[in-house]
Each structure stands twice: as C-alpha cells, then as structure tokens.
C-alpha cells in the first residue's frame, strides 16, 4: 500500500512530482488549523513549510508516522507533542548550503573589485578606471568561523581560488580541517591572520556578539568580514565603528540584527556590500528544500 501524504504549504513542483512517484499525495495549501485537525487522521505523512502551524491538537488527532518541514527550523511544529507520539520529523537544513556559499564569494569579489560603485559610476556617465583598483583573493588567507556544511563548501572554493584557509570551530578536529586543506586554529589566531573572514555559525547564546569590538580590533586593517550567518553574531555597532574608522577594510552583510536594517548607519558606508538575506534565494535551493524532505520521507517508508 502506498503511503498517504498531505502537503499544506507551497513547496516546489518538482518535489510534489517526486512524492507522487511513491505516495498518494493530496494538496491543501493554506488549510486552516480546524480543517487540518479534521482531516489529518487519514494521512501517514504531512509536509509543511512555515505557514502551517502543526499544533498539539493536529498531532494528537493524527496517525502520522513522519512529518517533513521543507526548510531549516522547526518553529512551526510542536516537536514535544510529535516526539511523545513517536512521529519522526525531518527537515532540509542542507538545502541552501551551495546557495549561501556562492553568495559569500559573490559578495567578497564584489567588495574586493569595487563592482557595485563601478557599475554605479558607469550608469552616471563616468569612466573612472583609476578609482577602482581592487585586490585579488589569490594567495590571501581565508578565515572560516564555523566549519559545518557551509564553512566546508566555502573552504573547497577558497582553495580553488588559490587561498590559504584557517578554520575555527570548537566541534571539529585537526583532521576534519585538514581534509578540506584548512588549518585548525583558535579564533584570535584566525582574526589576526586572515585577509577575509567569513562567519558560518548558528546564532546561539554563545555566538551572539561573537565578533565584538575587541575581536574586530584584532583584525588586519585591510581585512574584510562577511556575515551570511545570522544578524547578531557580529556586533553591528562595533562593526560600524571599525568600518568608519578604517580599522578594517570592509564588510559584506547578508543578515542584520533587524531586518530590514532601517536607519542603520551601516547603510551610509561605502566599504560595505549589503544584500537582503539572499543566502537561500536561488531556484536550486528552493527546489532542494522540498525534494530533500520528500527524499527523506521516501527513505523512511522504504526502511519500514
Ligand atoms: P552547520 O550546523 O552545518 O554548521 C555550523 C557550524 O558552526 C558547526 O560546525 C558548529 O560546530 C559550529 N559552531 C557552533 N558554535 C560555534 C562557535 N561558538 N564558534 C565556532 N563554531 C561554532 O550549519 P550550516 O548549514 O553550515 O549553516 C551555518 C549558519 O548559516 C546557520 O546556522 C544559519 O544561521 C546560516 N544560514 C544563513 C542563510 C542565509 O540566508 N544567509 C541560509 C542558511 C543558513
């Protein structure tokens, strides 16, 4: 018998197509909580994104064996209630890994080659070749703070650019780092030596304000810092002062303490590249977030 899957949030078409290969799939996008409680009893699996709130009521009315959240967090699912009922939960935190990694390099190269101001001057009718002499990444030291999925993909590409790599992550071994041609170092060593520092840690009590005034002061005056992790990991006030006083060379920010960063003084600086939390915004990452969850659900039913 094929498992029955209910999908209540919009996921990519290709993921739905994959699900239909092994399951009977019903779509009820935007299903109300009340209706979900009424109908959930018929299904073996539920796939949501962020709009559907999978409350205790829904879970207790269900006979679900597995639940899939297309995306990273599980904030919209009552995980305790699901655990109590023995319902397995899967998600797809790996979906945006390549998208974030590629944005990191896009931002670094934009910053180091002055692409954004150069583009602007041409549109304004100016041809100011001499203003925009940049720097190469080749031969520079890339410091990666947080050596998980994204950190490692950054290391692979930094190596291809001919960079030396330092990694700081309390949860990796020297060997883990070496496998990616990186040198495992302490955070202060990384900050003092790197030409480009990129942050790939989750936001936790421990990492909030990890890059603070004191740590920014350790950086080289020419160094640039990239935050495509979470706003709050880098102290924005301290970062603004460091950039304004040219204590560091530049910054590329995809995430902010407040999003959008309305009125932030960072917006007035010319040595920063800003993007509106675009890390996961690729067609491929959107496809992945659905298909990875569907694949995990398929493997679960195959293993049963
Ligand atoms: P991951 O869990 O694979 O890796 C995180 C790494 O950080 C782990 O290896 C962990 O050991 C390390 N870490 C934890 N605390 C640390 C600390 N105090 N110092 C140094 N390292 C520490 O996660 P990932 O998939 O690589 O993603 C990293 C972060 O990127 C996510 O937590 C998320 O906040 C962010 N992210 C941003 C976007 C975006 O749109 N900009 C998209 C996806 C993920």
Structure in words:
By secondary structure, the chain is an alpha/beta fold. The protein folds into two domains: 4-92 and 283-301, Rossmann fold; 97-274, NAD(P)-binding Rossmann-like Domain (Rossmann fold, 3-Layer(aba) Sandwich). It has twelve helices and twelve strands. Helix 1 packs parallel to helix 12 and helix 5 crosses helix 7 (149-160). The mean pLDDT is 97. It binds nicotinamide-adenine-dinucleotide.
Q: Secondary-structure blueprint of this entry?
A:
Layout: E1 4-7, H1 13-20, E2 24-27, H2 33-39, E3 45-48, H3 56-60, E4 66-69, H4 79-84, E5 88-91, H5 97-112, H6 115-123, E6 141-145, H7 149-160, E7 164-168, H8 174-179, E8 182-184, H9 187-193, E9 196-199, H10 213-218, E10 224-227, H11 236-244, E11 250-253, E12 272-274, H12 283-303
Parallel strand pairs: 1-2, 1-3, 3-4, 4-5, 6-7, 6-9, 7-8, 9-10, 10-11, 11-12
Helix pairs in contact: 1-12, 5-7
Bound molecules: nicotinamide-adenine-dinucleotide.
Nicotinamide-adenine-dinucleotide is lined by residues 93, 96-97, 100, 145-151, 168-171, 200-203, 206-207, 228-230, 254-255, 277, 279-280.
- Could you state the CATH homologous superfamily of the largest domain? NAD(P)-binding Rossmann-like Domain
Unreliable stretches (pLDDT < 50, length at least 5) are none
Number of helices: 12
Q: Give the overall shape.
A: elongated
Query: Which ligands accompany this protein?
Result: nicotinamide-adenine-dinucleotide
Secondary-structure-derived class: alpha/beta
Number of domains: 2
Q: Level of helix content?
A: 25-40%
CATH topology of the largest domain: Rossmann fold
The second-level CATH architecture of the largest domain is 3-Layer(aba) Sandwich
Strand content: 15-25%
Strand order of the largest sheet: 8-7-6-9-10-11-12
The CATH class label of the largest domain is Alpha Beta
Overall average residue pLDDT: 97
The description of the largest β-sheet is:
7 strands, parallel
Per DSSP E runs of 2 or more residues, the count of β-strands stands at: 12
Order of helices and strands: EHEHEHEHEHHEHEHEHEHEHEEH
* Termini Cα gap: 12 Å
- Work out the radius of gyration: 23 Å
């Amino acid at each position: 018998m094929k498992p029955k899957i209910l999908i209540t949030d919009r996921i990519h078409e290709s993921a739905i197509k994959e699900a239909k290969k092994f399951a009977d799939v019903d779509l009820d996008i935007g299903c109300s909580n009340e209706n979900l409680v009424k109908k959930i009893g018929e299904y073996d699996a539920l796939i949501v994104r962020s709009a559907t709130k999978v409350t205790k009521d829904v879970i207790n009315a269900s006979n679900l064996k597995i639940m899939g959240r297309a995306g990273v967090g599980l904030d919209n699912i009552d995980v305790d209630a699901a655990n109590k009922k023995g319902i397995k939960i899967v998600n797809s935190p790996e979906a945006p890994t390549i998208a974030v990694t590629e944005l990191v390099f896009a931002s670094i190269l934009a910053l180091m080659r002055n692409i954004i101001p150069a583009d602007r001057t041409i549109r304004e009718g100016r041809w100011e070749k001499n203003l925009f002499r940049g720097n190469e990444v080749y031969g520079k030291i890339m410091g990666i703070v947080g050596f998980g999925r994204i950190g490692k993909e950054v290391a692979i590409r930094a190596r291809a650019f001919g960079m030396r790599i330092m990694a700081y992550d309390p949860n990796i071994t020297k060997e883990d780092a070496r496998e990616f041609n990186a040198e495992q170092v302490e955070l202060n060593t990384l900050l003092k030596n790197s030409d480009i520092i990129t942050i790939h840690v989750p936001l936790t009590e421990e990492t909030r304000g990890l890059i603070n005034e004191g740590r920014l002061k350790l950086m080289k005056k020419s160094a640039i810092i990239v935050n495509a992790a979470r706003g709050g990991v880098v102290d924005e006030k301290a970062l603004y002062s460091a950039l304004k006083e040219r204590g560091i060379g530049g910054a590329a920010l995809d995430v902010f303490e407040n999003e959008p960063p309305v009125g932030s003084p960072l917006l007035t600086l010319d040595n920063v590249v800003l993007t509106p939390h675009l890390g996961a915004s690729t067609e491929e990452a959107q496809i992945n977030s659905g298909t990875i969850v569907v694949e995990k659900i398929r493997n679960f039913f195959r293993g049963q």
